[in-house]
Amino acid sequence: MAASGGVVRGAMASEPLARAVAEEVVRWGSMKQTGVSLRYMMEFGSRPTPRNLLLSAQFLQRELPIRIARRALELESLPFGLSNKPAILKVRDWYLDSFRDIRYFPEVRNRNDELAFTEMIKMVKVRHNNVVPTMALGVQQLKHHLCRARNIPFGFDEIHEFLDRFYMSRIGIRMLIGQHVALHDPEPEPGVIGLINTKLSPVQVAQAASEDARAICLREYGSAPDINIYGDPNFTFPYVALHLHLMLFELVKNSLRAVQERYMNSDKDVPPVRIIVADGEEDVTIKVVV
């Protein structure tokens, strides 16, 4: 892709500024991003001193433009004309605006700079709250266009692969920002480091997610299958509670719907949905069985 004004089409009013930002996006998008493990974030965040928070902000000021630029470039080169759909253009402009905000923020050198930088990336995170539904709208716009043109390609594998990469990267970006912001909490919950619960019970999260999913099923259908959870309630491991709850909630919600619709007009007893939590030496397996 050329570093032309096309990559910032509609995002900037000034043509010279647009060209300069486009060149920066291409340059930063070609850089290698730095992997950050959950273990490292937990160890580093265990002492959220002003110095550590400053180091964290300085790292994010270098790292976030790389990750955001990569996504902006990828949004510009999607197959089947998806890049030109209005919803996708909106998402791309959000990424470009965020790249510009972070890239052109003054160098973080002291405590006051760090606090101002933290407030700015908070706003960046809020700006991207609606990325997922807006991306889905863009895909719908493409499908509608292709159906009208009767030019439906065989499968959307390329788009599905892109969406998988895009959403995984989005989770990483939001985790980096969210963890840094959360480390500023003056009164964190016991055992919680930023967003990471060091003693998270997957059984308890499964129970909470199941209650939420079952409430939706009851509201939609008037009844809901039972849910049986198997596992050691005393077992804990370090993880992000919100992420695990969301994953389990979606899995259980879909399982409840499948069972409910299958047995809706049946005289047979509705079987329960089972959640099995198995802990190993190095990993945790959670299985939802219908």
Give a written overview of the molecule.
By secondary structure, the chain is mostly helical. The protein folds into two domains: 5-187, Alpha-ketoacid/pyruvate dehydrogenase kinase, N-terminal domain (Butyryl-CoA Dehydrogenase, subunit A, domain 3, Up-down Bundle); 201-289, Heat Shock Protein 90, CATH 3.30.565. It contains nine helices and six strands; from the N terminus they run αααααααββαββαββ. The longest helix has 26 residues, at 50-75. The termini are far apart. The model is unreliable at 1-5 and 8-13 (pLDDT under 50). GO terms for molecular function: ATP binding; pyruvate dehydrogenase (acetyl-transferring) kinase activity. Belongs to the PDK/BCKDK protein kinase family. It catalyses: L-seryl-[pyruvate dehydrogenase E1 alpha subunit] + ATP = O-phospho-L-seryl-[pyruvate dehydrogenase E1 alpha subunit] + ADP + H(+).
Can you give the helix content as a percent range?
A: 55-70%
Biggest sheet character? 3 strands, antiparallel
Rough outline? flat
Total number of helices: 9
The figure for the number of domains is 2
Count of individual beta strands: 6
The structural class is: mainly alpha
- Cα separation of the termini: 47 Å
Q: What portion of residues belong to β-strands?
A: 5-15%
Output the CATH homologous superfamily of the largest domain. Answer: Alpha-ketoacid/pyruvate dehydrogenase kinase, N-terminal domain
| CATH class label of the largest domain | Mainly Alpha
Cα-based radius of gyration, to the nearest Å: 22 Å
Poorly predicted regions are 1-5, 8-13
| CATH T-level topology of the largest domain | Butyryl-CoA Dehydrogenase, subunit A, domain 3
State the order of secondary-structure elements, H for helix, E for strand.
Answer: HHHHHHHEEHEEHEE
Strand line-up of the largest beta sheet: 1-2-4
The CATH architecture classification of the largest domain is Up-down Bundle
Mean pLDDT: 91
Subcellular location: Mitochondrion matrix
Keywords: ATP-binding, Kinase, Mitochondrion, Nucleotide-binding, Transferase
Subunit structure: Homodimer.
Main location: mitochondrion
